[in-house]
Specification:
Elements lengths: L1 H29 L13 E3 L1 E7 L11 E8 L3 E9 L2 E2 L8 E13 L2 E6 L5 E5 L2 E3 L5 E7 L7 E4 L2 E4 L7 H6 L24 E6 L6 E6 L2 E5 L2 H9 L9 H7 L3 E7 L6 E5 L5 E9 L10 E9 L7 E9 L1 H7 L11 E5 L4 E7 L7 E2 L5 E2 L7 H11 L4 E10 L2 H4 L8 E5 L7 H5 L6 E6 L5 E7 L1 H9 L8 E5 L8 E3 L9 E3 H4 L4 E5 L15 E6 L3
Antiparallel strand pairs: 1-33, 2-22, 3-4, 3-17, 4-16, 4-20, 5-19, 6-15, 6-18, 7-8, 9-17, 10-16, 11-12, 13-14, 18-19, 21-32, 22-29, 23-24, 25-28, 25-33, 26-29, 27-28, 30-31
């Protein structure tokens, strides 16, 4: 027993020496920075200056999805979303045939949805995923031929440049629409249009066998379009107009979708993938086969896609802002001390500018950790962290920003599920985001038992570690926006560049919702436990 005890003690001693050596090696390699779990350690909290920034008209062409409809949000604005797209034939050239006579023209665009149940007879119940506002809302929908030929690029001084279309160009396209409304089906397809979640069931009977066939389709926009228009523009068109895409898009310049209030009905707004839209023209033409009947005809069809080779689209967003919201993001912005509340709204809305630490007081430290008189351009609190890591051997475990929602103001309002934090100075993603954008980075809303949003937590551990271990790394400004998707990281250009930024994340443009969160300013109207601060967890030597 004595020998066994001695052997155990010896093994423990060897393991302790081995682990100590490994820890020394790891710390040397990691420059005093260790793992990502804070193991219940209490956070050190640091000041954050955050203020509101208005988003002005923004580039909105050639992106997916797009918004269509009207969203009334009393906290922020009433948003009207119109849309324009080019149209292309499914193939070139096409041969219409002799003496074509149109039978029907139908536009179909699928909705984002998911199935919930399917009964014994095969009937499926669906829920639409991207409807904002009143679920039973209605809008007046009008589809027109567009009078403006859209281009993907243009020449300037001999250089080919991309052509941008912006969210504020609706009046330009509206004024040049051609003719009358094309969607001339029943009232539910135009004056009282609504986004219908019902499965589409079509039953047909074979005239010869009398066998009935059932076709089922997931929910989609289905519009009967004016037959005479397409008879004239497509079936009766000169063959040269249908020979190639560039010629066709000069001839038929696309479709413009315009929405208005439908009387006193509540309205709503949907995000849709218009690129999956198809126009099906069904018609009869004289048969090309040998027959004794010179008047014999055959059924034919032509497909037009809302996604051609050179397809260009644009989303037009018009906001009528609430007075308090307008004031918060324009006239009452405090860029020095920060704002008490941060208003984040997608579309042509607003973002928050985040400045970590206190950007006004800057000191420097000598090699012994003592403060040196004079400024070094680095915020005091960042200098303090660098000193604690370098001199006191503190190790950064985790760093977070937690944005608490003003639940009282947001009562009864639909909330965005996600926010997105990025490098505003360089318009780039953060190191933490590039590591794991979907899970570890965060930004997803945290809800209470009442299903209402409480906060958004974003992990910026790698960002803080980079600031701490490398004194040459710049303490950049951060931008915070509402987000539709964690995988959309592109930026769209502002029409009028401002002093803060020339671009805005596309993921914010795609999300029509907004939220109000507490800022970092000390205020009697801001609960101290919900005030925005940077939380950093450390391992500290005894």
């Amino acid at each position: 027993m004595y020998k066994t005890s001695f052997i155990k003690k010896a093994l423990l001693a060897v393991m302790a020496v081995f682990l100590y050596s490994c820890d020394k090696d790891f710390n040397a390699i990691g420059d005093g920075l260790i793992g990502d779990d804070h193991f219940g350690l209490e956070a050190e909290k640091y000041d954050v200056v955050a203020f509101n920034q208005e988003v002005t008209p923004i580039q909105s062409n050639t992106m997916t999805p797009n918004a269509l409809g009207i969203l009334d949000n009393p906290l922020f604005a009433s948003t009207t979303a119109n849309f324009v797209t080019q149209v292309g034939l499914s193939s070139y050239p096409i041969k219409v045939g002799d003496s074509p006579v149109i039978q029907s023209v139908v536009l179909e665009i699928p909705y984002f949805n998911h199935a919930t149940t399917t009964d014994n007879e095969g009937n499926t119940t669906y829920v639409l995923d991207s409807i904002y506002g009143d679920k039973n809302g209605k809008i007046k929908l009008s589809v027109y031929e567009s009078g403006i030929q859209m281009r993907s690029s243009y020449l300037s001084g001999g250089t080919q440049l991309p052509q941008f279309y912006y969210t504020d160009q609706n009046s330009e396209f509206d004024s040049k629409k051609v003719g009358s409304r094309l969607n001339d089906g029943d009232v539910l397809q135009n004056d009282e249009f609504f986004f219908d979640a019902k499965e589409i069931v079509i039953k047909t009977t074979d005239p010869t066998t009398k066998v009935e066939t059932t076709t089922r389709k997931a929910p989609q926009m289905t519009l009967q379009l004016n037959k005479q228009f397409f008879q004239d523009r497509i079936l009766n068109a000169d063959a040269s107009k249908l020979a190639a895409e560039d010629v066709f898009q000069e001839y038929f310049r696309g479709l413009y979708f315009n929405v208005e209030k439908s009387g006193s009905n509540p309205s709503n707004l949907a995000l849709m993938d218009f690129s999956k839209g198809v126009i099906t023209i069904k018609y009869k033409a004289k048969t090309s086969s040998t027959t004794d009947d010179p008047e014999a005809t055959e059924d034919k069809e032509i497909l037009l896609n809302l996604k051609g080779t050179f397809t260009t689209t644009a989303n037009f967003l018009q906001d009528t802002r609430n007075a308090d919201y307008e004031s918060a993001i324009t006239t009452n912005v405090n860029k020095t001390d920060g704002d008490e509340r941060l208003y984040l709204k997608g579309g042509v809305g607003s973002l928050a500018v985040i400045k970590l630490f206190n950007p006004t007081d800057v000191l420097s430290y000598d090699s012994n950790g003592a403060v040196v008189n004079g400024a070094n351009g680095v915020p005091d609190q960042l200098d303090e962290i660098r000193s604690n890591v370098a001199i006191k051997n503190w190790k950064v475990n985790e760093a977070n920003l937690v944005f608490y929602i003003d639940a009282d103001k947001m009562t009864g309002t639909q909330e965005p599920n996600r926010v997105y934090l990025y490098n505003l100075t360089d318009n780039a993603i953060l190191a933490d985001y590039s590591t794991d954008a979907v899970s570890a980075y965060g930004g997803v809303i945290s809800r209470g038992s009442d299903k209402r949003g409480k906060s958004y937590k974003i992990r910026i551990t790698s960002h803080i570690r980079n600031l701490v271990k490398d004194a040459t790394v710049k303490n950049v400004d951060l931008g915070l926006v509402v987000s539709l998707s964690p995988t959309t990281v592109a930026f769209n250009a502002l029409k009028d560049k401002n002093a803060i930024t020339p671009v805005v994340p596309r993921t914010s443009l795609l999300n029509p919702l907004g939220t109000i969160i507490y800022g970092g300013k000390v205020s009697t109207s801001t609960p101290e436990d919900k005030r925005l601060k940077l939380e950093v967890y450390y391992t500290k030597p005894n």
